[in-house]
Amino acid sequence: MLKRSLVFVFAMLFTLSFGSMAFASEDQQTDISKGLQIIEEANAAIDYLISEAVEKSAALQSEHLEKVSNLQNDAALTDAEKEVKITEETQNYNAELDELIVKLQDTAVELTNEGIEKAAEYGVYGQCEWKLVEIADRAVWVDPIRVIGWE
């Protein structure tokens, strides 16, 4: 009995949530399409930024590892000098990577907020949906938009 009741409730919710779109006016459909397109464009821009950051960070990491390897194998340097130079190189690498990550996150937040606001003007509502991205040797949270509904 309980199972049948739950199935009936979920079937009604499903029917009402998707069936109401059939009665939407042509203007509402156009507005919803525009709002969804805005969110898609914002997410595409964010994905592009992520892929650029991943490529740049991979190049940075590769360059850093090569420099560290060269310093470790430099016979002209003492162990203390190697340690100092490796520390300096690591600090430079971390500073560049931090700058790249902050730029990615700030731009993504800006695009997300802008996309959510513009889509809301057309009756489409979205929210940040955090996505974990590997940037070189770090895991970074970036926030594309997820559609949560429309009017």
Residue stretches low in confidence (pLDDT < 50, at least 5 long) are 5-10
List the total number of helices.
Answer: 3
Look at the helices and sheets and give the structural class. alpha+beta
H and E order:
HHHEEEE
Distance between the termini: 35 Å
Radius of gyration, Cα only, in angstroms?
25 Å
Biggest sheet descriptor: 2 strands, antiparallel
Beta-strand percentage range? 5-15%
Strand order of the largest sheet: 1-4
Structural shape: rod-shaped
Q: Which percent bin holds the helix content?
A: over 70%
Number of domains: 1
- Nearest-integer average pLDDT: 87
* Strand elements, count: 4
What multimeric state do the chains show?
Answer: single chain
Question: How is this fold's topology laid out?
Answer:
Blueprint: H1 2-19, H2 26-72, H3 79-121, E1 124-128, E2 131-135, E3 138-142, E4 145-150
Antiparallel strand pairs: 1-4, 2-3
Helix pairs in contact: 2-3
Keywords: Signal
Signal peptide: 1-24
Polypeptide structure, described:
- This protein has helices at 2-19, 26-72, 79-121, and strands at residues 124-128, 131-135, 138-142, 145-150.
- With 151 residues, the protein is α+β, with helices and mostly antiparallel strands.
- The protein has one domain.
- The strands form 2 sheets. A two-stranded antiparallel ribbon has the order 1-4. A two-stranded antiparallel ribbon has the order 2-3.
- Strand 2 and strand 3 (138-142) form a beta hairpin.
What's the short version?
It contains 3 helices and 4 strands; from the N terminus they run αααββββ. It has helices at residues 2-19, 26-72, 79-121; strands spanning 124-128, 131-135, 138-142, 145-150.
